[in-house]
UniProtKB/TrEMBL annotation:
This is Inositol monophosphatase. Its cofactor is Mg(2+). Keywords: Hydrolase, Magnesium, Metal-binding. GO terms for molecular function: inositol monophosphate 1-phosphatase activity; metal ion binding. PROSITE patterns: IMP_1. SUPFAM superfamilies: Carbohydrate phosphatase. PANTHER family: INOSITOL MONOPHOSPHATASE, INOSITOL-1-MONOPHOSPHATASE-RELATED. InterPro entries: Inositol_monoP_metal-BS (IPR020583), Inositol_monophosphatase-like (IPR000760). GO terms for biological process: inositol metabolic process; signal transduction. It holds the Pfam family Inositol_P.
Length: 164
């Protein structure tokens, strides 16, 4: 009996560790894609900055530009290409899938008004949730060429250097 109990306990603990390691690997894979998506979006934002853009009002009366939508499409395409099963919530509300283990929260052009008026304070924000808890975030600020990342229990970084 003792062996049976020990084996059961070992299997239970082992399963918990395996799950934790598996989730950690899943998060790490998604971090890499989030960083890739943020950098890609920064390039799109820079390429189109201070160039003619089209704007329209959303239902909530906030502005959206063709660049918001272009960046959103690029990010979503990259995420879906790697993690089709994940949920995506984007500020432009064109992509939404509920009930997934992982959810991406995206603001493709944070600072739309600045961008429209040629003010260089804008960027892209991407966060990753696991089972309802934010575990990672990345912000790309293309004009000062800065990439901020932060992970749960890992601190925050600017261009790969720890800032907290």
């Amino acid at each position: 009996m003792e062996n049976g109990k020990d084996e059961s306990l070992h299997q239970f603990i082992g399963a918990g560790i395996e799950k934790k390691i598996g989730v950690g690997m899943k998060i790490a894979e998604r971090k890499n894609v989030a960083i890739e998506a943020a950098i890609k979006s920064g390039k799109i934002l820079l390429k189109n900055f201070r160039r003619p853009i089209t704007t329209k009002f959303k239902r909530d009366k906030s502005l959206v530009t063709n660049i918001d939508l272009k960046v959103e499409d690029a990010i979503v395409e990259l995420i879906k290409g790697h993690f089709a099963e994940d949920s995506i919530l984007s500020e432009e509300n064109r992509y939404l899938r509920r009930g997934a283990e992982f959810r991406w929260i995206i603001d493709p052009l944070d600072g739309t008004h600045n961008y429209i008026h040629g003010i260089d304070a804008f960027g892209t924000s991407i966060a990753l949730e696991f089972e309802g808890e934010v575990v990672f975030g990345v912000i790309c600020m293309p004009v000062p060429n800065e990439l901020y990342t932060a992970g749960k229990g890992e601190g925050a970084y600017r261009n790969g250097k720890k800032i907290s």
